[in-house]
Amino acid sequence: MAREKKINYYDNIAQIYDRTRWLTESVAEEVADFILKLVCATPETSFLEPGVGTGLNVLPFVKRGYSVTGIDISSEMLAQFRQKFNETPQNLKLIHADASHLPFLDNSFDVVLTVHMLHFVSDWRAFLDDINRVLKPGGFYLNCQWITPPARKEFEDYFRAILAKYEGGKQESKRINAIIQEIDVEEYFYGRGVKSNYFIAKEWTVKNTVRELLSFLKSRAYGLCWQVPDEMFNEIMNELEEFCIKHYGSLEEVLSSEAKFEIWAYRAV
């Protein structure tokens, strides 16, 4: 991820990151199939993911022998990625550094993908300039995101509503939303004569009990959970659990809805 070390919470959640997200390894394999076809991959195709984290998005490419480079500010997230192998494969290079600065030569990669990480970058235009620089002519930039399953998002919105009662969380939420709204990747590439192609690479059903989702929040698996001090966070969670019992009727209630993996593809000229 691309945040500075002093506000990097990913080291703290690295061990629980994969199990608290909704992209599974089997889904990632199917997304990889889609991407390989999209970019007309050959055995020589090289991939870069800034903000690679635990490698969920690019693990299938590594397993299939493609050259993969990942860069991330969290040493613990990278450690989790490495632990998925008996030893780090020769076709995988992991760099512990700020992912918003790409320490690579011009024309280094065939494919660069980012997955809901642009909002962590302080100067997103400079970052996209850097992506253009390291892409080979005709290469692909894939701006991707996993769309939160609606039932899960509704649950998280209840948490946000309680969080918003506390002024610090309210101000932080506004700040993050403002940053997200300022990012206009379409406008950036349109100004360079490049249009996007939009794809839904995969849709799949995600199921969680209310108790599971509460446990994810209690383990502070998401950035919004780090906006308030420990004591206040515990108060918020107690209030949320009481709300869930009344609203859902049972903590064993299963919340089921569809997730999506979206891709905006841009081809370098």
What does this structure look like?
This protein is of the alpha/beta class. The protein has one domain: Rossmann fold (3-Layer(aba) Sandwich), CATH 3.40.50.150. It has 10 helices and 7 strands. The chain has helices at 10-13, 25-38, 59-63, 75-82, 124-134, 150-163, 167-182, 185-190, 210-218, 230-248; strands at 46-50, 67-72, 92-96, 109-115, 135-147, 197-209, 254-267. A 7-stranded mixed β-sheet has the order 3-2-1-4-5-7-6. α5 (124-134) links the parallel β4 (109-115) and β5. Residues 1-6 and 169-181 have low confidence and may be disordered.
What key phrases describe this protein's structure?
single chain; disordered N terminus; 7-stranded mixed β-sheet; alpha/beta; 269 residues; 10 helices; Rossmann fold; 7 strands
